[in-house]
């Protein structure tokens, strides 16, 4: 069974795009994170639902021209692990 992840509630984050980067201020910790693509897209498709890396990859493929969904799911899984360490997503 694949691990489910849920993004931090959107009201707990303030996002500000800056050229190719996005600043994400996390109200609960007072920390501002500087992230690059595909992090903002991953957080956007997650909304506040609990999803697997495969679910997220499928949703991303609806909005972006992605070639190999298996490879995309691996990339998403790596980014989810990073986001989990930053406290921007949680395992459920």
UniProtKB/TrEMBL annotation:
This is HPr-rel-A system PqqD family peptide chaperone. InterPro entries: PqqD-rel_X (IPR027599). It comes from the Bacteria. It comes from Parasphingorhabdus cellanae. The lineage of its organism: Bacteria, Pseudomonadati, Pseudomonadota, Alphaproteobacteria, Sphingomonadales.
């Amino acid at each position: 069974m694949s691990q489910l992840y849920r993004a931090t509630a959107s009201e707990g984050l303030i996002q500000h795009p800056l050229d190719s980067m996005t600043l994400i201020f996390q109200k609960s910790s007072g920390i501002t994170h500087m992230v690059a693509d595909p992090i903002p897209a991953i957080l956007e498709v997650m909304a506040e639902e609990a999803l697997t890396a495969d679910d997220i990859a499928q949703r991303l493929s609806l909005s972006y021209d992605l070639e190999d969904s298996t490879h995309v799911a691996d990339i998403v899984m790596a980014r989810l692990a990073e986001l989990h360490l930053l406290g921007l997503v949680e395992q459920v």
